[in-house]
Amino acid sequence: MNSRSLISLLFFVRIYDKICRMKKSDDPKKHEDASEPAPPDHGEEIKPSDYLRAVKAHLRGGEQKDAFSLLLRASVQFPDEPLILSYYGCLQAIVDKKYRSGVEVCKRAIALFKEKKFSGEEVLYPVLYLNLGRAYLAAGKKKDAIEAFHKGLQYDKSNSDLRKELRGLGMRKKPPVPFLDRANPINKYIGLILQKAKKEPEKHRGKGTRGK
């Protein structure tokens, strides 16, 4: 896992922790007894985000088996937490080689997340579909993996992890004129024009910066 992926994971972990806290604050049971003590602080209570931070550390060190063991415990403690289940299902397919179960767990994670209906939850869909796609890849289902990655991009078109997976599978952008072959001179010419047009604003921005 590269540094950009780790930064993305940390970003998702923070948002997910915030969503979990929002859910707890909306729980009517919490207000039934005003004399009930406040929940323990971060140092006393293990949260889903705590597990995910530890998982991130294991993945950074290339320790997928340790990350999977940690997620196994986390999934027992938090059986209905979508992000925990998503990572667990992904590594179940990759590490434990239980492909069908891993894919189903990832699907269940997405279904659970949709049921919760939190505001702003769309930011987490890319990572949920990323994990599902990786589980499909481990199972050798390339077509299903590509479909999952594309679904993730519907929520974040610039997601670098999803795009990297698609590039690794040989997925390229469609040519400017789709009904012509990519090697057709017309597509090549239009491609060069588009590439040049894309570079022009960057060149002008650079000149403007130097002028200051």
Overall description:
By secondary structure, this protein is mainly alpha-helical. The chain has 2 domains: 3-168, Serine Threonine Protein Phosphatase 5, Tetratricopeptide repeat (Alpha Horseshoe), CATH 1.25.40.10; 175-212, no CATH class. Helix content is 67%, strand content 0%. The chain contains 9 helices and no strands. The chain has helices spanning 3-25, 48-60, 64-77, 82-94, 99-116, 125-138, 142-153, 160-168, 185-211. α4 (82-94) runs antiparallel to α5 and α5 packs antiparallel against α6. The longest helix has 27 residues, at 185-211. The radius of gyration is 22 Å and the shape is elongated.
Spell out the key features of this protein.
212 residues; mainly alpha; Serine Threonine Protein Phosphatase 5, Tetratricopeptide repeat
List the helices and strands and how they pair.
Elements: H1 3-25, H2 48-60, H3 64-77, H4 82-94, H5 99-116, H6 125-138, H7 142-153, H8 160-168, H9 185-211
Shape, principal axes of CA atoms: elongated
Strand content: under 5%
The name of the CATH topology of the largest domain is Serine Threonine Protein Phosphatase 5, Tetratricopeptide repeat
In DSSP terms, counting alpha (H) and pi (I) runs of 4 or more, how many helices? 9
Q: Which stretches are low in confidence, meaning pLDDT under 50 for 5 or more residues running?
A: 28-43
Topology order in helix (H) and strand (E) letters? HHHHHHHHH
Overall pLDDT: 78
The CATH first-level class of the largest domain comes to: Mainly Alpha
Q: State the helicity in percent bands.
A: 55-70%
Structural class category: mainly alpha
- Taken together, the total number of domains comes to 2
Number of strands: 0
What gap, in angstroms, lies between the N and C termini?
Answer: 39 Å
Q: Can you name the CATH architecture of the largest domain? A: Alpha Horseshoe
In CATH terms, the superfamily of the largest domain is Tetratricopeptide repeat domain
- Radius of gyration equals 22 Å
Question: Sheet bearing the most strands, described?
Answer: none
